[in-house]
Amino acid sequence: EVCRDKYDAVLPLVRLLLHHHKLVPFVAAVAELDLRDTQEANTIFRGNSLATRCVDEMMKIVGKHYLKVTLKPVIDEVCYHAETSLGKLSPLWYPCLLDRHSCFSSVENLRYYVDKVFREIVRSSISCPTLMCDVFYSLRHLAAKRFPNDPHVQYSAVSSFVFLRFFAVAVVSPHTFHLRPHHPDAQTSRTLTLISKAIQTLGSWGSLTKSKLSSFKETFMCEFFKTFQEEKFTESVKKFLDDVSSTESKEPSGVSEPVHLKEG
């Protein structure tokens, strides 16, 4: 009612509430309003509502260093190797035009990158900022309250942010999150896009069902993901989501840094 475009207010609002240590109760309040209009559990926090935008901005501000220590080394490796013949994934896009050996090599490279990014993420919970954990804890319990008969919704409520809106977006646009100095070239962008799609799918709570696999436009990605249909991946995601949505005190990780709320 105050702003013509409510999203113009999101960033200053988040910064103001962060300064006064009031962001968690505010996010809980607007998320509860958001959930009232959510009819199906599988669409939870997928739109661009005031609640999701506030959490997005919070993660960008509070989670900047968390992203850096978790993803920057592996993103640097991907970008370096994507410029060499060893790291190119182009055979995946045109498998019928290239020899079998090249295609196999590219699939192996993609598998290596996805494995490494996934492994870095699921073991990073100790570095997740306390404020993010508090917000995720609140969202998890609000989701479980809204859909009490769905045991998976408490996980998808968190994964829709930390995987889809945080890690996956940072992988595909590392320059936006200050993980890389420049926008990657076309070849590197294509590699990062495939890795990001993989992380989104692995981060979605539950097993990799046929319906999820069929959502890929590229046939080779369906075949590729069949190699990830193992319980260990699902269990790793579950444990990670449990850890980052817990309010239990964590050991100091030594990777926190001051949050700048105002510049200039």
UniProtKB/TrEMBL annotation:
Question: Would the keyword Transmembrane helix be found if you checked this record's keyword annotation?
Answer: no
Q: Which UniProt keywords apply?
A: GTPase activation
Asked whether the keyword Ligase is assigned, the reply is no
Question: Its Gene Ontology molecular function terms?
Answer: GTPase activator activity
PROSITE patterns named in the record: RAS_GTPASE_ACTIV_1 (PS00509), RAS_GTPASE_ACTIV_2 (PS50018)
Taking every annotated instance into account, which residue ranges of this chain make up the domain Ras-GAP? 5-204
Q: Which SUPFAM superfamilies match?
A: GTPase activation domain, GAP
Q: List, alphabetically, the Gene3D superfamilies matched.
A: GTPase Activation - p120gap, domain 1
Record-given protein name: RASA2 protein
Q: Which organism is it from?
A: Peucedramus taeniatus (Olive warbler)
Q: Report which gene this protein is encoded by.
A: Rasa2
